């Protein structure tokens, strides 16, 4: 004698996941974005130029090499495993959460969090190379690397599109 077995299939969000995967993906951008990069920083220099020079280093007008003060890529390298786990968890919430998060909301949340971490790294970290005495004098005694004015630090933003 055979017994009948009743099988019930529960969607658990697969239809939502399939629909979302057909949509164009959103992306999170963090750093000095194009609109801010083209803005004036000082003496004919743009904020974008300052961002690149600080990240990679540069030769000063006197020919002296100025060491990089990575404000973005070192932070990314130090946090890549955590960021990957967080974004994977966010993806599951977007696809299968009850109620599901929107992709926009999840990326906005992480964008704000990651921007704050980058700013904290600049303002409070000992990981960024110290200023030389000549730089401190030029900055009027200010000894915070990467901050002459607040133009550069205020230009570090995030955007979801």
Relevant terms:
single chain; 161 residues; mainly alpha; two-stranded antiparallel ribbon; elongated
Description:
By secondary structure, this protein is mainly alpha-helical. It has one domain (32-160). 49% of the residues lie in helices and 12% in strands. The protein contains 7 helices and 6 strands; from the N terminus they run H-E-H-E-E-H-E-E-H-H-H-H-E. It has helices at residues 14-22, 34-37, 47-56, 73-96, 103-124, 133-138, 151-154, and strands at residues 28-32, 40-42, 45-46, 58-59, 65-66, 156-160. Strands 1-6 form a two-stranded antiparallel ribbon. It has a two-stranded antiparallel sheet with strand order 2-3. Strands 4-5 form a two-stranded antiparallel sheet. Strand 2 and strand 3 (45-46) form a beta hairpin. The chain is elongated and about 90 Å long. The mean pLDDT is 84.
Low-confidence stretches: none
| Mean pLDDT over the full residue set | 84
Share of β-strand residues: 5-15%
Give the strand line-up of the largest sheet: 1-6
What is the first-to-last residue Cα distance?
A: 61 Å
Describe what is shown at a glance.
It contains 7 helices and 6 strands, in the order αβαββαββααααβ.
Topology readout:
Blueprint: H1 14-22, E1 28-32, H2 34-37, E2 40-42, E3 45-46, H3 47-56, E4 58-59, E5 65-66, H4 73-96, H5 103-124, H6 133-138, H7 151-154, E6 156-160
Antiparallel strand pairs: 1-6, 2-3, 4-5
Helix pairs in contact: 4-5
